[in-house]
């Protein structure tokens, strides 16, 4: 606490002490005002310091809360990464394990893998997941934290990509005979792949189909992808599945056409 010295005019003090004229009451008031002023001045630094301490305390609490939020985000990112690894394009596995990465009070109910055997079951489960995770639906329900919104957004995007691959591969798998397959490949491959679209009109005879199939093998073969580099896990997974589909379709094509590889 600061200290102050109050100087009193000696003539006024003598008159006040001797009871003489000169405004004793006025001098007394002056003294009271001076003391009050000194007290108020002495308390100012303490008040200012208390305000600064309060501001610092609030800032520290905000920084701590942000730090905890960042840590939670990082932990959740790792959970999502582990959940996604190995099943980037497998919509069935993603849906059957979705409950592992969502928050406990979400509206999602776990679905066993055994309940996702056929296409209609997968489609129904995917639609349920969309209703659970879509940003607009979350906004309507309310009560969702920033962390939960972030998780929902990421998982929603992952499921969308996996569903697109699933739908396209389903079409490719059921495309008979082989000739439409090379024509359909651009629908499922990534934009910067080395594959160049082939019009269906250019796949009329066997030599054209064989040439297109060989190009597809060079584009999608795991060893070739490894040599070129710069391919994401998702792209490698898509390439692997499309490569297998084309191999099976090629074998059927050779059998039907009475040809040899």
Automatic annotation (TrEMBL):
Disordered: region residues: 1-69
GO BP annotations, alphabetical order: clathrin coat disassembly; clathrin-dependent endocytosis
Gene Ontology, cellular component aspect: cytoplasm; vesicle
Stretches with biased composition (Basic and acidic residues): 9-18, 38-61
Protein name as catalogued: J domain-containing protein
Xref: SUPFAM superfamilies: Chaperone J-domain (SSF46565)
Gene Ontology MF: a single term: clathrin binding
UniProt xrefs under InterPro entries: DnaJ_domain, J_dom_sf
Organism encoding this protein: Brassica cretica
């Amino acid at each position: 606490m600061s200290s102050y010295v109050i100087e009193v005019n000696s003539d006024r003090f003598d008159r006040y002490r001797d009871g003489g004229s000169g405004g004793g009451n006025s001098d007394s008031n002056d003294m009271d005002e001076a003391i009050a002023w000194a007290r108020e001045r002495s308390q100012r630094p303490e008040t200012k310091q208390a305000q600064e301490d309060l501001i610092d305390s609030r800032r520290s609490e905000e920084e701590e809360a942000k730090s905890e939020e960042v840590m939670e985000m990082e932990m959740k990112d790792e959970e999502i990464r582990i959940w996604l690894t190995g099943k980037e394009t497998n919509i069935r596995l993603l849906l059957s394990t979705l409950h592992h990465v969502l928050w406990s009070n979400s509206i999602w109910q776990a679905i066993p893998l055994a309940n996702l055997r056929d296409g209609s079951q997968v489609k129904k489960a995917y639609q349920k997941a969309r209703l659970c995770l879509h940003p607009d639906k979350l906004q309507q329900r309310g009560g969702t934290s920033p962390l939960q919104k972030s998780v929902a957004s990421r998982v929603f995007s992952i499921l969308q990509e996996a569903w697109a691959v699933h739908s396209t591969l389903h079409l490719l798998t059921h495309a008979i005979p082989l000739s439409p397959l090379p024509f359909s490949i651009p629908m499922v491959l990534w934009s910067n792949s080395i594959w160049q679209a082939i019009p269906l009109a250019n796949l009329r005879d066997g030599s054209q189909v064989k040439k297109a199939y060989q190009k597809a093998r060079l584009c999608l073969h795991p060893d070739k992808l490894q040599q070129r580099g710069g391919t994401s896990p998702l792209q490698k997974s898509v390439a692997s599945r499309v490569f297998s589909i084309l191999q099976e379709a090629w074998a059927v094509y050779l059998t039907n056409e009475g040809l040899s590889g």
